[in-house]
Design a protein that fits this description.
The complex is a heterodimer of chains A (110) and B (199). With 110 residues, chain A is mainly alpha-helical. Chain A is 67% helix and 0% strand. The radius of gyration of chain B is 21 Å and the shape is elongated. Classes of the chains: A mainly alpha (110), B mainly alpha (199). At the A-B interface, helix 1 and helix 2 of A face helix 2, helix 3, helix 6 and helix 9 of B.
Chain lengths: 110, 199
């Protein structure tokens, strides 16, 4: 079967496709090119987009924005006065609320 | 001193591209005349109907015009254009993917005769070259787009794996794997035809 495939490929190789061009084909394409130019002139042949530069620019912008946010938050945390260490009140309040007996009278305060 | 090349009797591709970029759009026609025959040969390897061939070549040339700025001149213009053309031909194959099924009832008498002649010890069927070419076209039509592209470039155009890699943008190992699969796919199609012609 490989032999048959080889013979088929040889037959195909022996006959290269024609290089004939239809008469006036270049004029037809140029008409399309000129139509394209008239509709898209301003941006048609603009400079190529450098994907790497675009990515780097976006990355740097994101980095600076991130650093800005970090700086603001850091300054904010420095500006807030430290707590007076009265954490035990908060803890006591939480424990009391959990330990409070469940009211079985439908929530009415007696 | 100008960086642009000196104008000569026959302008180079670089000169023509510079002229088009600087606004002389009509000079693109010279580039079309220079390369259209090669593009027609390429397109006729993938499309059979002449209107499809014209559409492919037109698309290649229009895309070349709109992307002219991306050609930096570090490789010959022809290579850049052929790479663009190969990608458009591959897109065409993907859009016009035909059914993979092929039966011997589709084959003409001459095509069946050619296959039978190949089974003989001397395997000659000189008078049936057209039948062989039609048969190849039928088999290629049934291959997957990637297989067809790889087989066409490697076996019909005699390009090296590296050249195919440059044209398609695929890596060398990917091309080797695709070539292996393509040959297997083709072998199965031929086997099936060979089996069915005796049914």
């Amino acid at each position: 079967m490989n032999d048959l495939r080889t013979k088929l490929m040889e037959a195909a190789r022996s006959h290269s496709p024609s290089d004939a061009v239809p008469i006036g084909f270049e004029k037809q394409v140029m008409a399309q090119v000129l139509a394209l130019k008239s509709t898209r002139q301003p941006g048609l042949l603009r400079a190529p987009v450098d994907a790497w530069a675009l990515w780097t620019r976006t990355f740097l912008r994101a980095t600076w924005s991130g650093l800005g946010v970090v700086m603001i938050l850091s300054l904010g945390s420095l500006a807030v006065p430290p707590s007076d260490g009265d954490d035990s009140d908060y803890q006591g309040l939480m424990v009391d609320s959990i330990a409070m007996p469940i009211d079985e009278t439908g929530g009415e305060i007696l | 001193m100008s960086l642009l090349p000196e104008p000569s009797a026959v302008p180079s591709d670089l000169e023509l591209v510079h002229a088009v970029r600087s606004g002389e759009t009509e000079r693109f026609e010279e580039l079309i005349c220079r390369y259209q025959a090669r593009l027609f040969v390429m397109a006729r390897r993938y499309a059979r109907r002449e209107d499809e061939v014209e559409d492919i070549v037109q698309e290649i040339l229009l895309k070349a015009y709109t992307r002219l700025e991306t050609w930096r001149g570090d490789a010959p213009f022809e290579h850049w254009l052929m790479r663009l053309g190969t990608r458009i031909c591959y897109d065409f194959l993907r859009q016009h993917q035909r059914s993979r099924e092929i039966t011997s009832t589709e084959l003409s008498g001459d095509e069946v005769d050619w296959m039978e002649c190949q089974a003989l010890p001397d395997g000659r069927a000189d008078g049936k070259a057209d039948a062989a070419r039609t048969l190849v076209a039928r088999v290629l039509d049934r291959l997957s787009p990637a297989s067809r592209l790889v087989i066409t470039l490697l076996e019909l155009e005699d390009k090296s794996v590296k050249e195919v890699a440059a044209l398609t943008g695929w890596s060398v190992p990917v091309i080797k794997v695709r070539a292996f699969r393509a040959r297997l796919e083709m072998k199965r199609l031929i086997e099936r035809l060979d089996r069915e012609k005796y049914l």
